[in-house]
Design a protein that fits this description.
This protein has 284 residues and is of the alpha+beta class. It is built from nine helices and nine strands.
């Protein structure tokens, strides 16, 4: 029996827009207190509930992705650390959207990014006991997120979710981004990435019947598809336990001539904790 965070108490599909007071959003200058211990499913559920309700009240089309989205699809080996939401069909910037959320629900707060070179604010949801859950707001085009048509959004327990295969491939992208990063905080995410992708690939093959032919829909551009094929091939070679699941979804995972022609690459593996650290070099 898979477990997901508690579902929101009100519908996420509401398209009604509410006028919010035109007050200035104050950005706190101090970093939030550290969360002692991992968040619980109940705490993530409270933050998710508030996020969904605020965005729905403001009239946005949006969907959940990242580990919280994976959890709603049934990934149950760990609790998400934060919430990632992509807001669709909006001319506003992410900072403008976050400011509107803060004005709508006072439990949200904005904190300047840790790196002063970054000009954005980090949005946190304040939980009981002086604990907080980070809520990231993104828009299509950021980190290669495709423009997802609203009619393709999947709803589970009234929570709008990124389509399964798109979510899985974005999760795979995150793994390779963390592998390529020189930041230790990013590298520390690699073991969880591997576990997340492994379970999601199994769910895709066995429960959701995800298939590569779904990428033929016009909202996936060619670059997204080609990159996804290459990443699936490389990941399946590094973690053979996932090969059958990728194959069941229609991806080619063998070492045949097809992949050597389409995706010539060298994979360098160096030990890092219990998970290989991979450097991928694409040949000209």
């Amino acid at each position: 029996m898979v477990q997901a965070p508690p579902s929101p108490s009100s519908s996420a599909t509401s398209s009604s827009s509410q006028n919010t007071p035109s007050k200035t959003v104050q950005v706190k200058s101090l970093n939030p207190p550290k969360v002692k211990g991992p968040l619980s499913f109940q705490e993530v559920g409270l933050a998710l509930d508030a996020s969904v309700n605020a965005l729905a009240a403001l009239g946005y089309d949006f969907c959940l992705f990242g580990s919280a989205g994976c959890s709603m699809y049934g990934m149950d080996h760990r609790c998400p650390h934060d919430i990632d939401i992509v807001v669709l069909s909006s001319s506003e910037t992410c900072e403008q959207i976050k400011a509107r959320i803060v004005r709508t629900d006072g439990r949200f707060t904005l904190i300047p990014a840790r790196d002063p070179r970054n000009k954005w604010n980090v949005m946190w949801f304040c939980l009981p006991g002086r604990r907080k859950c980070k809520v990231d707001i993104l828009t299509p085009g950021t980190i290669s997120i495709p423009i997802i048509p609203p009619h393709r959004i999947v709803h589970i327990h009234r929570v709008p979710l990124t389509p399964f295969l798109c979510l899985l491939l974005l999760k795979l992208q995150g793994y390779f981004d963390h592998v390529a990063s020189d930041e230790k905080r990013m590298q520390k995410k690699i073991p969880e990435d591997v576990d997340d992708i492994t379970q999601m690939a199994r769910l895709g093959a066995e429960l959701y019947h995800a298939h590569v032919m779904q990428l033929e829909e016009e909202w996936y551009d060619s670059e997204f598809k080609i990159t996804a094929f290459r990443r699936v091939y490389q990941f399946s070679r590094l973690f053979p336990a996932t090969t059958l699941h990728w194959a069941a979804m229609g991806f080619s995972t063998g070492g045949g001539e097809e992949h050597q022609v389409l995706f010539p690459c060298k994979i360098y593996v160096a030990p890092m904790t219990n998970t290989p650290r991979v450097r991928v070099q694409i040949q000209a």
